[in-house]
Amino acid sequence: MAELKLLFKHAHDPAYATLKGYQATGGYEALRKAVKGERQAVIDEVKKSGLRGRGGAGFPTWIKWNGIAKDKKGPHYVVCNADEGEPGTFKDKQLMEQTPFLLIEGMTIAGFATQADVGYIYIRGEFVDAARALRKAIDEAYKAGLLGKNILGSGWDYDLHIHLGAGSYECGEESALMSSLMGERGMPRLKFPHAPLPTVAGLWERPTVINNVETYACAPFIIQNGGDWYATMGASTKNSRGTKIFSVSGHVNKPGNYEIEFGTSLMELLEMAGGMKGGKLKACVPGGSSVPIIDAEACEKAIIGYEEMADVKSMVGSGGCMFLNEHTCIVNFIWRTALFYANESCGKCTPCREGTKWMFQILDRIRRGGGREDDIQTLLDICSQIDGRSFCGLGDAAAWPVAAALRVFPQEFEYFIKNGRSMVESEPALAMLP
Amino acid sequence: MAVASNPETVEILINDIPVQVPKGELIVESVKRLGLEIPIFCYHPRMKPVGMCRMCLVEVGFKQPDGTVRKMPKPQAGCTLPADANMVVYTDSEMVHRDRKGVLEFLLVNHPLDCPICDRGGECPLQNNTLFYGPSTSRFTELKRHAAKAFPLSQYVTLDLERCIQCGRCVRFTEEISGDAELAFRFRGASMQPSTFELRDFGSKFSGNVIEICPVGALTNSKYRFRARPWDLETKPGICTVCSNGCNIWFDYRVQQMVRINGRANDAINEEWTCDKGKFGHEFYNSNERLTQPLMRQGGSIGPANWTDVYAEILKHFAEAGNAAAGIAGPVASCESYTLFKEMFAGFGSTSIDHRLYSNPVSNEIANAEKSSISSLESAKTILVFGNSLADDLPIIFLRVRKAWFKYGAKVIVAYSGANEVESFADVSLRYKPGTEEAVAKALSEAMNGALSAGVEAETGVAPSEYLRAAELLKGSGAPIISSAGLQNLKAGKEICASLQALAATINGRFNLYALGANEEGARQAGIVPGKGGKSVGDILKACKKGEIKALWILNSDLLNEYPDRKLVNEALESVEYLVYQGWEKNETTAYASVVVPMTAPAEEDGTYVNVDGTTQHFAPILKAREEARPAWRVFSDVMSRMNSKELIFSAAEIRERLAGATR
To answer: pTM here?
Structure first.
């Protein structure tokens, strides 16, 4: 299968980032259609579409939207998670910079469906360009009466704000994001069943829908063309519908964002990205640094879909797909990944706080030639002591890549420990050094 | 916060044992019903659960309609999980044991394990949990985190950051209980550390509590650091006598030296907290200035004397003086002593005794009115704090008022002339011009009728709208009015109290003029007030000045520093012919004494104390009396037996029995 450009169809056109250009290609038709009908109809359409969260977890979007109280007793909120911090992922950045109105319209539709009063876009602190593009677009939308009071004569008011984070990976975790948005320390909060769902008590303890940029950007297409139409894409997969943007990076000839239909194979994605550069394919991290690494053999079999990727013991994740060629030292690769998570652990819970640092310390010692035989077992134990025991997903995300690398490439670690140097005949992955 | 007040109960299975618990109760509390325990670090029953340390992980499942149990894929934190119908909890499974080992191994990775020199060693939750649930060895061979070993957060609290396990109890205490939010976490991940803002002084008035709730030896008591090992200490229950709240404390001592004070749980009074004044204010027990033997003035100088001579001398002067004798009792003596003090003066033929060290004491009617109990304050919907800085004057009452607001959403109104802690959460703050309390109290009453007199803003500095807002909240609210006895030092003290009492009547509430001294209530109950024709403290002092009072007995009060009119005290002490000072510590007032009678301090004698809300508490002797110091009641008994051959009293219990018989 080739690229299937839905969200990115007009991304190359600078005019698409202006309201005029956006509307010229059918923009805001979806919102017009939505506000004329029932709120529930929007949610039903999203349900039919089979849209699942594009941030990494793949949670059905309609369940979140439908979970908001129908009889409104106070403010409702819509929050967009634009804190794209997963290493290897850079799709939201492009979406916000080149197609800001898709996000704004998507969030307005979500706001309408959930009777929200205010929407917040929590943007990663480094994404200044994206924030500027959104600012401009939001201002235009306000002027055109597409945000603010009485949107499109529906009698419904909706404000949209942007908020820049301060550069913490943890703030991409939805509950930590809400804490950060409320001015608290960016630490995760208790989750269901320990506390109510965000749809019941989220931002400021009020019903809140929180989705990824890409998820919201899908909404206008679903409303405009119908959920059934959307669900035709990716029909070959078990339960993944529509398109997904993959940020392809690593040793490929044409790195960049590629929008594909679910059901495309991983090798087709590699082909789109111009194939491998500098050597044969050795491994791939298909969905951002936290998903388990897979070897070339598994890559051949991998079909992109939430359930299908599990067959090769990996995940779609956020779509940060990194292809690694044969000259990549997996030990060094994982060492760098572990350093990232040790730096980004928020410190709230014991397993993640202490475990991520310990893992890095061991990998660092191995990398300096001081590895010991029992290190592999210790690393595996640490991973199992973090995985599922930490407060939020960051701990799991830190443990999975290490555990997977040890499972898929044990010989590389054994060699490094025994000989004090990398098995791969090349300079250590210098490009990946901090 | 720990136990939900949900009347609905659900049946859950804990380790296959069915148990009925209130729906929503935290599992960590539910297991206690079966006598089981889930190990914890960050969880504290009096604070909101956070689930940070992961020590309390348990296996959880739900019983399905077909009878099978579907386990949740991940272990769950027992301290944050609310009990629900069909819940199945395992606290003893193989997975749970493995997880506990894992968490403890992680916690010890960066812990220095300097237990042999740690203050906490021997009473340390980390030590205990490691011993019961942890691995016996560590696989960690990398470099541990290092930090300053003794970082002074304040004069009371020293932080040893290396030992910290980042449980956040201290941070949450300052946010939830004391409300000053003095502590917060800085940095993240393995570098995360509790700290004050910009490393400023940890200025909380309740800072000592974080030492006790710290589950490791990270927050240490600067006064106790390295002074003892816990197992060398003897611990006995006691009552704090630094202020009138009557907090329950643990008294730790060693070789007859007071070593440290810890909070003792009593839900009716201090829950389990202490204020810094109380926790660090018991140094006087070990003071070098303690009075240890009777002293008598002969010629110009004062020197040691024996009891026989002292008694003879006292008796000579006081019996001769008759109605020209007077007694002033300070607020820190036992009820037993107060009782005999009054009897002794009756024997001298004098009615001039008083305990009210205020310039304008209020009528007995107001002083004797029943007070709201401390625990009842937390269920008040509205509270008015009038004319005092609550956190300074009545720290434990302050914590209750804050709890009423923080946990139960009470509306709080504060009227005070200066900045104070209550303002931070008060709905209405009437910060008036100093000295205008009378006008403020009057204006509040007027505002209840919606008609404020003109010029109230110019006079008091508070806008009429604020009075009206306060009145709106107070109307029919039944709000307790919280004032301290310090109001009686104001010029218009009597009038202020009268109008506050009238205000209380209109809002259906209660006016509480809370005492400030440790046993001020006890002195009042024992009747240490001027009898018929007797003089109050102010009049006694004036009479001393004029030479009308020949012999004055001061019971344990540094009058020069405790009575508001220092000039008057000074003149009185210089003029009075004969002065007996009875107390446990040398101070400015003792310098004027003709006779100094050494007295035992509260922990050194058997005695009863009545706290601010009228709770009577008994304090058993803990330390030995210093040399020749005697309980005050014994001195009174000795004097009386010499005066009119009254029978000697040998124990405080005798006095208590007699009192009980009188009321029976």
So the answer is: 0.94
